Description:
Layout: E1 3-6, H1 12-23, E2 27-32, H2 35-44, E3 50-53, H3 59-72, E4 77-80, H4 100-115, E5 121-125, H5 149-170, E6 175-179, H6 197-200, H7 202-209, E7 221-223, E8 226-227, H8 237-251
Parallel strand pairs: 1-2, 1-4, 2-3, 4-5, 5-6, 6-7
Antiparallel strand pairs: 7-8
Helix pairs in contact: 1-7, 3-4, 4-5, 4-8, 5-8
Amino acid sequence: MARVLVTGSSQGLGLDAARRLADAGHRVVVHARNDRRATDARSALPGAEAVVVGDLTSLEEVRAVARQANALGRFDAVIHNAAVGDQEPRRVETVDGFAHTFAVNVLAPYLLTALLAPPDRLVYLSSRLHRSGQPGFDDLQWQHRPWDGGQAYSDSKLFVVALAFAVARRWPAVRSNALEPGWVPTRMGGPSAPDDLALGSVTQVWLAVSPDPAADVTASYFYHQAPRNVHPATRSVELQEELLDRCARWTGATLPPPPGRPA
C-alpha cells in the first residue's frame, strides 16, 4: 500500500480523492488551509494518517507544510489538488506580493515539489480551460493589465501542466503527470457543473497508486483515465525552463537533483 499526500483535501475533489485512497487501504495524509479546516478534515476522514496545515497563499506557510510533510516520512505519491478558481472579481495580492491565483495554482505546487522528498509519482490537477491559457510571461502577476479572473485561471492551469512536464523531464525516475478532473459540482465548480462528481477524483487516484501500465507513465495528460491533448506550449522546453527559473527566483527554492528510479 502507498503513502499519499493530497493537498487541498479538507473538502471537494481533494477530500474525495483522499477518501478513495483510504478506502482502498492506502495511508493518506490530508492538507488543510487552517486549524478549523483541519478539524473538518479529521472529522470527514478519521482514517487519515495525519493532517498537515498551511495556507498556500503564503510562501512561508507552504514551507511549513513541506516541513510537516517531510517529518512524516517520504511519500510514494503527491497529488497537487489545491487550487483557486476563476471567480475572483479583482486582482488579490498575497502577503508575498503575487497574484492570488498564480500563487496558489502555480507557485505553491512548485515550491512543494522543490521542498518535499521526491515521491515515485506526482499528480498535478489542471483544467480543460488551460487550452485557453496564454503562455507569455509579460505581466504574469497582472500588475499592469486589467484584471480578468477567467484568463488568470486559464493561464495558471496552463503553467501547472508545463510544471508537471518540466518535472517529468528533469526527474526521469519520477512519474509526473497532469489531468483535468472535469467541470464537476464542487464549491469551485458550482452546482450547475455538468460533469459527474463521482468520476472527478478517479483519475488522480489512478495515477497516484494504480499498477495499471497505462498509469505508469510520465509527462502525460489525462481526462477520466484517457489521454487528452494539451496546449502545445506546455511541451515547450523553453517555456518550461523559463517557468522553473522564475519560480525558483520568486520562492528561493530550486528543484533538487533527479532522484534514482525506484526498483
